[in-house]
């Protein structure tokens, strides 16, 4: 059945809740503790190329996954068949696996008092009636605007429209059973520009829980074309050490390395450059990151994590000081600490800006240096913090963008890069689970010719 209306989704949600309850019942009868999760996604994806339909895909995917615990032994199994016999067979398979796994003192359900027994509605589902013809037209219109935005746009990698609805159900033998609906719509376009015999590619996209909150096809198309043209005729730089601005959608990755370094898995394995830094100053005095998992309609909002632990507002960085690690129940036990509700990832990190006026403000403040708009490849050592990545962007002089640059490498140590942050602008990138503006670093090594 195609999930096309909220009523159909709600009916399917009840079926999935019953399936989860059934699996938990089978596990309890066998004397095990257990947790069961189902995520079901259905929707439409349409792609075009050169304003012709290239692909139309409907999907309706999902499976029930169960983890059972026999003392300190764990077994996992899954099934896409939600008939009672199949669910029982999956539980029995998980139990059989658990009997032969090694004991682990840190395994097991998250503590009962941490459970989100009362889940809040975060308004994550917004229905929109979108048929195939409308989806195709949106993609074609986007690509049309891109191809006609500049005579130097010579080809297209295509445009894509996606419309998806999802159901998430989680339950465990602590007595928790929660579920919610969600929706996600996106529109993207990628085109190719040409200068003499040189080609450059760039893209743009828009994404939202609400269809009517997407940017227009005209904006997406023209932005993709503009960005591709701006990259034409890039130069290489001589090796130098200069100030660097990470443009907002690239800056999300820079902060993402911080999230990885304070995650429990890296910490208990002693593979983090921020080992034992809790409560210490790792960023400038003015730097702050807050986590807000309950923001309405946001892409990374969730009332509970993938272990059923309730999510909470947290301060990650205050006055440059690391306030918390990011722990699951397992990594928390490994470290002698408590879960922070981060099984499955982070939830709406808000990096506080300390400059107004957006990118223009940072360009003027930097004066002369490098604006990075794309990262290529990755050579990052999570243990030492050594950072070296290919990059492209623009050379800036006297606060003005002068020309594009390519085939360069930027390098440093993440610990020093974080300390060398000078400013965060207020041009916030809202399409990521890390919401930050462009970030100015005092200096980095740039390797070119």
From TrEMBL:
Residues 126-232 form the Metalloprotease TldD/E central domain. Residues 34-98 form the Metalloprotease TldD/E N-terminal domain. Residues 239-448 form the Metalloprotease TldD/E C-terminal domain. It comes from the Bacteria. GO terms for biological process: proteolysis. One of its GO terms (cellular component) is cytosol. This is Metalloprotease PmbA. The lineage of its organism: Bacteria, Pseudomonadati, Pseudomonadota, Gammaproteobacteria, Pasteurellales.
């Amino acid at each position: 059945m195609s999930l096309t209306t909220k009523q159909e989704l709600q009916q399917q949600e009840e079926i999935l809740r019953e399936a989860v309850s059934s699996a938990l019942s089978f596990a309890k009868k066998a004397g095990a503790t257990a947790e069961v999760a189902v995520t079901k996604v259905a929707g439409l994806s349409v792609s075009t190329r050169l304003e012709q339909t290239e692909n139309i895909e409907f999907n309706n995917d999902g499976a029930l996954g169960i983890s059972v615990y026999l003392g300190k032994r764990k077994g996992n199994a899954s099934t896409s068949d939600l008939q009672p016999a199949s669910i029982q067979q999956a539980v029995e398979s998980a139990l059989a696996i658990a009997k032969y796994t090694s004991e682990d003192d840190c395994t097991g359900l998250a503590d009962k008092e941490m459970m989100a027994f009362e889940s809040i509605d975060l308004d994550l589902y917004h229905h929109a009636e979108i048929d195939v013809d409308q989806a195709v037209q949106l993609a074609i219109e986007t690509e049309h605007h891109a191809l006609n935005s500049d005579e130097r746009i010579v080809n297209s990698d295509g445009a894509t429209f996606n419309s998806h609805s999802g159901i998430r159900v989680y339950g465990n033998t602590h007595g928790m059973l929660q579920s919610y609906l969600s929706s996600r719509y996106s529109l993207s376009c990628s085109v190719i520009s040409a200068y003499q015999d040189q080609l450059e590619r760039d893209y743009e996209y828009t994404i939202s829980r609400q269809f009517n909150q997407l940017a227009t096809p005209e904006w997406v198309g023209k932005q993709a074309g503009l960005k591709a043209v701006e990259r034409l005729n890039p130069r290489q730089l001589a090796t130098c050490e200069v100030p660097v601005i990470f443009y907002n959608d690239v800056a999300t990755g820079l902060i993402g390395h911080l999230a990885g370094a304070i995650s429990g898995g890296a910490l208990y394995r002693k593979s983090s450059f921020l080992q034992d830094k809790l409560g210490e100053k790792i960023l400038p005095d003015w730097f702050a990151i807050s986590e807000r998992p309950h923001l309405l309609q946001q892409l990374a909002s969730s009332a509970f994590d993938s272990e059923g632990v309730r999510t909470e507002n947290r301060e990650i960085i205050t006055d440059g000081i690391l306030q918390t690690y990011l722990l699951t129940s397992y990594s928390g036990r490994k470290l002698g600490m408590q879960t922070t509700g981060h099984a499955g990832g982070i939830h709406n990190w808000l990096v506080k800006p300390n400059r107004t006026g957006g990118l223009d403000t940072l360009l003027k403040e930097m004066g002369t240096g490098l604006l990075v708009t794309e990262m290529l490849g990755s050579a990052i050592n999570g243990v030492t913090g050594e950072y070296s990545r290919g990059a492209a962007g623009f050379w800036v002089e006297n606060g003005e963008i002068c020309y594009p640059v390519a085939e360069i490498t930027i390098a440093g140590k993440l610990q020093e890069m974080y300390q060398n942050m000078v400013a965060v602008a207020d041009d916030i990138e809202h399409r990521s689970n890390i919401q930050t503006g462009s970030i100015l670093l005092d200096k980095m090594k740039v390797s070119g010719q």
